[in-house]
Amino acid sequence: MSDRDTFLPKFAALALIGAGLVFWARSVLDPYALSIVMFVGINVILAVSLNISNGFTGLFSLGHPAFMTIGGYMTAILVMPAARKGLMLPDLPAFLAGQEWSFLPALLAGGSLSALVAVIVGFPVLRLRGHYLAVATLGLIFIVQSLAVNLDGVTRGALGLSGLPSLTTTWWVYGFVLLTLFVCWRLKHSSLGRTMLAIRENELAAACLGVRVARTRVFAFALGAFFAGIAGGLWVHVVTLISPDSFSFGLAFQLVVMVVVGGTGSITGASIVAAVLTLATEFLKPVEESLNLYGASQIAIAVGVILILIYRPAGLFGTAEPQPLNLIKRLGSRHTSPANSPE
Amino acid sequence: MTLPYLIDQLVNGLILGSMYALVAIGFSMIYGIVRLINFAHGDILTIGAFAGLAAFASADLPFPVVILIVLVAGAVVGMVIERTTFRPMRGSPQVTGFIASLAVSIILENLAIMILSAQPRTFRIPAYLNALVDFGPVSIRVIDLMIVVLAIVLVIALTSFVRFTKVGIAMRATAENYDVARLMGININRMIMLAFAIGSALAAVAGLMWGSKYGQISPLMGVLPGLKAFVAAVIGGVGSISGAVLGGYILGLAEVLFVGLLPPALSGYRNAFVFGALILVLLVLPNGLLGRNTETRA
Amino acid sequence: MQTWIKGLASAAVGALIAASAGSAQAADPIDIVALYNLSGGGQASLDVPSLNGVKLKAKMINEAGGLLGGRMLNVTAFDTKDDTREAATAAKRAVAMKGVSAAIGFSDTTYVLAAAPLFQTAGIPFVTSGATSPDLPVMVGDEMFLVPFGDDVQAEAMAEYAYNKLGIHKIAIWTDRGMDYTTGLTKYFTKRFEKLGGKVVLSDVFMTSDQDFSALVSRLKSTKGVEGVYAASGPDTAGIIIKQIREAGLDLPIMGGDGLDTDLVVSVPGKEMATDVYFTTHAYVGLDTGPANEFRKAYTREYGHEPENAFAALGFDAMGVVANAIEKAGSADPAAVTKALAATKDYEGVTGALTYPEGSHVPSKPVAIMHVDKGNVDFDETVTPQD
């Protein structure tokens, strides 16, 4: 219990510090830098939520891009002004055409639809193990993509939905980062979370102890999908466009890398690696451009992943949660990479 | 729909299926020994195709020699990948290897685009390979016949190699249990490397055949065939060589008939259908048609 | 955490400034940004040639003494990696660079729609070298310019040519559903062809990544009364489609848009089978004389091979149109450049004479219809759209 008692005040303190930083960032950074900050936040949401299934429960899913696509389209269609819908999507079913929601309920609806799909797909697919599940969820990306291309009455086909309002702000992203971190942290330290970890470690033993394995798995999968759907909705309203190719297999790989490198099961690890990786790819770009070696940053990251898999197979943090306050203190005092300071 | 149309489509399906089978055999071979889903398999297919192009272009070599060069190129690449990437992480969970193979695939694809440019290239083969052979109602090209024959010959050759030769038996022992195999005096490192060499050489030859058949190759050509070969291998039962071939034919036929027999408007769902079928097969027949291990589900 | 981000950011920005300062020594260069998908996926085969064209034109202008009395063009290329998110962030990065006179980019409408609105907001003209949706300026705004003709123009030109000149009244259409370009072509072609009295007897679809068309070919073969095929395809599938249709023994005329303007159309099926193929493309590109020849020579000298497809010439012209506007405006100020761009009249490019009609940012350009006969690509006729 003591863990929990210190958690809330600590979390609140961190949230406040974070809010201050967001406030500061908004006043000094240009729109480009701010959009990178937003993508850092979105990737944190994605990595941490993928960690629920891949890290806590040991379900190796690659399906996040599929859920982002579902959430992204759903949010975009709900938020779009009805007049614009008439122009862009004349064949939209009547029950969708008239809707004109505000951002928050639309995001939640997008997340919920993703979660619903995850439940429907989850019951059969989650019986699969290890890399079979990985490939089945990979198939899910292709299936959703295929639907998005071909159901042009709802999605406007390959062209995608464009000119969406840029509703997503750093505050929205920050709010959902906090929500994701809060939910995941509480989950990990709750009995349900321990149940998930038990399933990951030894499914048979967990089942013998009365754990409802199938149901817990589907819940983990759906919860991850919910946040992926919300992240999709946020993403779409930063870029102001969604197309069937917006969330592809390459993104799934990046997210898996964040989880695996951060340490499967470590919320802090996944968040830090998500942030570092997003920033690193952005900062590698000028290098790539000046060397005229386009694609070099992807190669560099892939090589890095292989090295980590060889030399630190449990990821940088394992399942452990390094003390966030201490870590930030350390980061504040010296500009060291978090990669050097595990535990 | 008429009977000739149906026969036409069935032949299309069989030819496409033998293409998938060819890719899937190598895939299953590697899985059978090391339990690794090698995502980079499709990229080795690409390497094989470009090696073939280079061999054709640099000197006017006869086709059998080109095949030999491609086999060697594929085997070398496979061994290098095994030695540098997969061997150091042997003993890690299955998923680790899978992620590593994704990373290898990304490295190979980006390198290919950087070095070769993303442009598709023409792949010309000697005219006699493109000639038509008549079989009553249908006529088939020599290259298509070669692909079918090659797939069948390879199954027989590989199955007997694994079953009857000393090295083959050692490989199977390795697949069963590393430690016991080691105690029996088998050099398991060598066996695993051999599996990678054979599997990758087959992928490379499949790439050569792919290029020969379609007449065009590109740095990303292997991605979709690689994925579909995986689906084929799963349908047949991953790890089983004859299963891979069976799965390849089933997938090829199913895909062509899906496009050919349903209304044209549904053709766009072709890949969705393939992956939908994959998920369905995994659920109904988790070990595939001819597979035997039972680690796929709870 | 944020201070550390800032540290890294300032280091990276420093590197960027150092890099750009190193490459252009002359005082006060004119900054142009080019956004293209150079790695990571299928767009690279269109976008790399386009960027090559852009860079070649800029180099030629700089070698001839630059613009506005000696100011050099400085092209910064951003790789957007086949990712719409990268397209949007690259646009934000370019806008944040300050002092950019114009942006050039992309061969696909979706990517333009991800990037161009940001330039629109910043008041910087965005000239697309390859995206062909005629609705783009409506969707983006007055900073949006097209260098190629709209899909409507070339698809309608081909529909008329097919119906009137080739005498085809019953047609089969193959459409790549994975691209907006190809779905657009089919839409406009069908509309005009049916209006003329023609009939679409088969409409089949495929995806950009498909390589096996055997099932579609068999269906085409078994469909009665087909007199020709309109293949709405990009360059990557153009050659394979012709090869597979011809190998099945079908000698129907095959038609298409400028996606067929690639060497693959002849080299993949081979000279014998590359016959009775017609496609619309940009005037001059396929011709043996005039600016096209000069362009081809310069391109081959610079890159060691012939232009890969029509997109190289379009990139070349996009840079040319922008440079022309800067020269005409007498200033590199983006607002002045936009104004001068809109007034472009009879710019002699490699892809034909380009004029933006009053109030339109889709150029009125002649459409060339090319005829492939036994591997020889010949110019057949030019259609200039009348409105």
Automatic annotation (TrEMBL), chain A:
Molecular function in Gene Ontology: branched-chain amino acid transmembrane transporter activity
Cellular compartments per GO CC: plasma membrane
UniProt keyword Signal present: no
Annotated TM spans: 7-26, 32-52, 59-83, 103-125, 132-151, 171-187, 218-239, 251-279, 291-311
Compartments, record wording: Cell membrane
Source domain of life: Bacteria
InterPro entries: ABC_transp_permease (IPR001851), LivM-like (IPR043428)
One Pfam family of this chain: BPD_transp_2
Protein topology in the membrane: Multi-pass membrane protein
Annotated keywords: Cell membrane, Membrane, Transmembrane, Transmembrane helix
Name of the protein this chain belongs to: Amino acid/amide ABC transporter membrane protein 2 (HAAT family)
From TrEMBL, chain B:
InterPro entries xrefs: ABC_transp_permease (IPR001851), BCAA_transport_permease (IPR052157)
Residue ranges of the TM segments: 12-34, 41-59, 65-86, 98-118, 138-162, 191-211, 217-239, 246-266, 272-290
Membrane topology type: Multi-pass membrane protein
Main location: membrane
One of the record's GO cellular component terms: plasma membrane
One BP term from GO: L-alanine transport
Subcellular localization, as worded in the UniProt entry: Cell membrane
Keywords: Amino-acid transport, Cell inner membrane, Cell membrane, Membrane, Transmembrane, Transmembrane helix, Transport
Pfam families reported for this sequence: BPD_transp_2 (PF02653)
CDD domains on file: TM_PBP1_LivH_like (cd06582)
UniProt GO MF annotations: L-isoleucine transmembrane transporter activity; L-leucine transmembrane transporter activity; L-phenylalanine transmembrane transporter activity; L-valine transmembrane transporter activity
Top-level taxon: Bacteria
Family per similarity comment: Belongs to the binding-protein-dependent transport system permease family. LivHM subfamily.
Designated name of the protein: Amino acid/amide ABC transporter membrane protein 1 (HAAT family)
Organism listed in the record: Breoghania corrubedonensis
TrEMBL record, chain C:
Entry keyword Cytoplasm: no
Residue intervals of the Leucine-binding protein domain: 29-375
Keywords: Amino-acid transport, Signal, Transport
Pfam families found in the cross-reference section: Peripla_BP_6
Gene Ontology biological-process entries: amino acid transport
Signal peptide: 1-26
Top-level taxon: Bacteria
Family: Belongs to the leucine-binding protein family.
Identification of the protein by name: Amino acid/amide ABC transporter substrate-binding protein (HAAT family)
